[in-house]
Design a protein that fits this description.
By secondary structure, the protein is an alpha/beta fold. The chain has 5 helices and 7 strands. Helix 4 crosses helix 5. The longest helix has 13 residues. The radius of gyration is 15 Å and the shape is globular.
Length: 154
Amino acid sequence: MLVEARQDFLKKIEHRESEVERQLAFLRRFLTPRSVFLHVGASDCALALQAAGFCERVYAYGVQDGLTSGVRLPLNLRLGIPREPVDVAFSEGFEAPMAASIHRWLAPGGRYFFYVNGDYRQARRTLREAGYSDSRFPFLLSVFQRQRMAAGVR
């Protein structure tokens, strides 16, 4: 049963392999072996699983219900809200209500990375209202998808 559950789980995340590699290539410059990493909206857990290989601790928030049932996760990967300050947080989309929660979970100097497809000025305003000290929008991740990675710094 455990083997079948693991195989089903791996099939579900296999199609995102190149996207996850691209995201990790970007995020690794901000992560160390002592980092605590948070993936917000980690529906399939693919990025969190990969990050668990080189971070001290990884939290996956928003994993699809039942997806990891019967699957043995790495010991340093935890599902749900972080129980300690986070050095780097990442979400695939920007949701204004989550910005304040993520700010509370970040360690001083921690960074929150997310994709922005819309109004940069509104995202910057939301980050400032949530208490971030700085926001940046310079990271072009894909010319084809026209998505930019933005960062909020606590």
